[in-house]
Amino acid sequence: MRRNLLHEGAANLKYEIREIVAVANQLHDLGVEITWENIGDPIQKGESPPKWIREIVSELVVDPRSWAYCNTAGVNQTREFLAAQVNARGGVQVTPDEINFYNGLGDAVAKVYGFLRREARILGPSPAYSTHSSAEAAHSGYDHFTYRLDPRNGWMPDMDEIRQKAAYNDSVAGILLLSPDNPTGAVYPPEILAEFAEIAREFDLFIIADEIYSNIVYNGTEPLHLSEWIGETPALAMKGISKEYPWPGSRCGWLEILNKERDSNFAAYVESLLAAKRLEVSSTTLPQLSIPRVMGDHRYPDHLKTRQKMFGQRADEIESAFANVESVLVNKPGGAFYYTVMFQPEILGSRQTLEIADPAVRKLIESKVENVEPDKRFVYYLMGATGIVVVPLTGFQCDYPGFRATLLEHDDQKRHWILKEIVSAINEYTAS
């Protein structure tokens, strides 16, 4: 065409979590039974929301209000309910007008980065969750600007590096953190969170905290929400119901806008996010209507505790399964429903293989492993040999070789089989 149509950041829109699905589908066409460990969908892995939650949603389906547009920023009664929940925790207080709804957090992420001035960069973690890293890179036209999470320190952030990058890069406007973290399952302690707030105050930055997993913590960790530790720093907390009910198909997420009045530039930026929502008229109404009824129900706290216990037990299984596998480093997750396996230095090479009996499957895998990252090579061989689909760790904007898998398989027998097959594959591959 006479004009180049492509946005300068388009090449940075990568989502390894789903891109690997194309290869898995090819294997499926060749007769390989696929086990999906690549994506955080509890429903796909056999979990079902409790009957009482489904009954509430069923009742709302026949309520004519659930079929209508809602307020641009969200259902008023839901925003009032959520603001009251924030304020009951203590810390920063919000009004219902500071709760804004989106069609899932993917929509919120696209808006948050897309309406930043291009020169304003968000410093984010590495390994990085692909939705954030791709959106930040696409908005700026450069690779996502990152700080390191340390696998030998429980995947905790390197706070000295964050401070240095904030101090010496005046393009940095904000800092992103995920706690509980995806892909590592790390949960940051209060002293780490306090240091994030301190750095943001010192360098006049704002904070983005993706807290979609804030109530999915276990094994001694406790929920700690942004409003409880941010102090006077402007910030955005990202929340949703997709992981908690769980209802990933609801596409229902929201922003808590904290300390907007403390900075006029931040306030103007937040207003641009709401203006962008006005162009879309409305977010999804039905899931929003469910929130006060579900989260306000006396059964909801026990629902959260039951799931916390379940994922805590599965984290124990992870710790036990990898305890004697010397070729990898696996930190026991404390939140969310993922775990990350990192290969030790110099373990992976370009000639290692797994036995694949089917010639057609072997040929396909061999065609995919030329000139790829060593951990991606392992992931492809794992798929071909076992049908298990995990995500290469280098797909999360980092240099650590490894992969991410989930705690989500609801069938106990199959979950144990998955772990056994992965451990066996690691041992065979690293010995080849």
Q: What structural category do the secondary elements indicate? A: alpha/beta
Low-confidence stretches: none
CATH topology of the largest domain: Aspartate Aminotransferase, domain 2
Mean pLDDT rating: 94
What is the element string, with H for helices and E for strands?
HHEHHEHEHEEHEHEHEEHHHEEHHEEEH
Quickly count the domains: 2
Distance between the termini: 51 Å
Helix fraction by DSSP (H/I, runs of at least 4): 40-55%
Describe the biggest sheet? 8 strands, mixed
What is the number of helical segments per DSSP (H or I, 4+ residues)? 15
Secondary-structure arrangement, i.e. CATH architecture of the largest domain: 3-Layer(aba) Sandwich
> Cα-atom Rg, whole angstroms?
22 Å
CATH class of the largest domain: Alpha Beta
Question: Based on CA inertia axes, which overall geometry fits?
Answer: globular
**Spatial order of strands in the largest sheet:** 2-9-8-7-6-3-4-5
- Give the strand content: 5-15%
Number of strands: 14
CATH superfamily of the largest domain: Type I PLP-dependent aspartate aminotransferase-like (Major domain)
Question: Can you walk me through this structure?
Answer:
The model has no long low-confidence stretch (mean pLDDT 94). The chain contains 15 helices and 14 strands. With 432 residues, the protein is an alpha/beta fold. Helices cover 41% and strands 14% of the residues. Strand 7 (206-210), helix 9 and strand 8 (235-240) form a beta-alpha-beta unit.
Can you summarize this structure?
The chain has helices at 16-19, 21-29, 51-61, 76-88, 105-114, 130-140, 159-168, 190-202, 226-229, 264-280, 285-295, 300-321, 359-368, 374-386, 412-431, and strands at residues 35-36, 99-102, 121-126, 146-150, 156-157, 172-178, 206-210, 235-240, 253-258, 328-330, 338-343, 388-389, 391-392, 402-406.
